[in-house]
Amino acid sequence: MATIAPEQRQEIEQAGDEPVRVEDPVTHAGYFLVKEEVFKRLRELLGEEEIDPSLYEFEDFEPLDP
User: Fold this and answer.
1) Which residue has the higher pLDDT, 47 or 1?
2) Whose CA is closest to 8, among 24, 26, 25, 21?
3) Which domain does 15 fall in, by range?
4) Residue 22 falls inside a structural domain
5) How many domains are there within the chain?
């Protein structure tokens, strides 16, 4: 498990119950830090989607000619 940096701890404390947005300085991808219990509640509410793996099997795929 990764640990938070002191700057992140300060941001989290200042945010209270709100998520904290962080950005990867290399990719500029944005992320939100949320408390573990909040994440677990959201996950329960949204449910885990089951995806049929056969939807991703393209062995017999042949594109249509225009």
Assistant:
1) 1
2) 21
3) 11-45
4) yes
5) 1
